[in-house]
Amino acid sequence: NPNDIVVIWSTLKTTVESIVNYRVVKESFQYTSGNSFLFVNVNKNEKRDQYIHSVVLHNLKPGAKYEYICGSRFSWSKMFWFVVPTNNTVRLAIFGDMGYKNATSLPYLTTDVSKKMYDAIFHLGDIAYDLYMGNGRVADKFMELIQPIAAHVPYMVCPGNHEEYKNYRHYKKLFKMPGTSEGLWYSFNLGPAHFISISTEVYYLAQFKINLINDQYNWLLKDLEGITATHCDRTHPWIIMYGHRPMYCSNYDNVDCTNHLTLTRVGVTSSHRFGLEELLNIFGVDLVMWAHVHSYERSWPVYDYEVYNGSYEEPYHNPRAPVHINVGSGGTRFSKTTFRAYIPEWSAYRTAYQGYMRMQIFNETHLYLEQISVDEEGLLLDNFYYYEIVYYPFKENRT
């Protein structure tokens, strides 16, 4: 429910209660209680307790600014604020691969959030590098680091390969995403868009095997069938998916997206089961966002390595295939990912500069994206408009 907000915090000792006091600015305070659980960080040398608290604030007023404090009657946080998203324009910041060290995009994001520029922030995996390290202390430091943005704007995440430790234990416990899969995959509506978050990692980590791939695939199929059935009422005509490892990239590193038969794209085993690109094609997913490679790359509308622009003059006006964007450029202690000299036909723009993407969904037919470079002190590197008034599956739209 976009009119609900979940407030999450942690303490090193148990508390009698978990409470959020909140109000619309200049109105009276009210309170809501939630729950907490003991999360034990354990390595071979140390057992470290931590208590994770969560409170859901229901039925908030769209567009209203709220103030809140969290804690208990015996100890409170400082005052924070948030603005409830509306059902109209949606404004997002999107990036992946941002660590506790060298989080180069964070100062720019903090400035943006202070100006109330976003309705949500998407972090597409590889969080903190790594959440479990230091027996969970890296996670604590990262959460403190992002507090100036995550305490004011919903911070949405998906799992990356750096979250895999002990079956995503820290990821599952420290973040609370929608749905029932402990944040591995989920979907939600915001404004005129339907957003889908998936785990690309189920295709790569051996311990998950085929059952988890099957579970996610069947869930995704059902979700897409449900949202496309309502396309005719134009409530959520935009379908936008995000995950960690890309289907397409032209980077130099030996990563799966440099292979023609990318596992997420075509599927696993010799029979290529559970490939996702065909679902994007059948159900008309408009935009797909990835990370993992530490660079930025925007595709033309592409399906099976073939370009399907709307037209030569306006490639993103009623495109006939999904658009892929890789935004793993948030800032890490690892080096940037370089590109191969050859630029494939499907690649429209690419750069190794670190930074983050802004998205603005104006209405049911128009959205705008831009990539901001933090290496170049906030320089606008790339931007484009996406216009869509044809809501058919891409397979039908190409005939």
UniProtKB/TrEMBL annotation:
Q: One GO MF term, please?
A: acid phosphatase activity
Segments passing through the bilayer:
none
The record's InterPro entries line, in alphabetical order, gives: Calcineurin-like_PHP, FN3_dom, Metallo-depent_PP-like, MPP_PAP, PAPs_C, PAPs_N, Purple_acid_Pase-like_N
Q: What is its EC number?
A: 3.1.3.2
Residues forming the Purple acid phosphatase N-terminal domain are: 2-82
* Top EC category: hydrolase
Q: Organism's domain of life?
A: Eukaryota
Record keyword Hydrolase present: yes
Q: Keyword annotations for this protein?
A: Glycoprotein, Hydrolase, Signal
The Calcineurin-like phosphoesterase domain covers 91-296
Give a yes or no for keyword Signal in this entry: yes
Q: What residue stretches are annotated with the Purple acid phosphatase C-terminal domain?
A: 321-380
What is the recorded name of this protein? Purple acid phosphatase
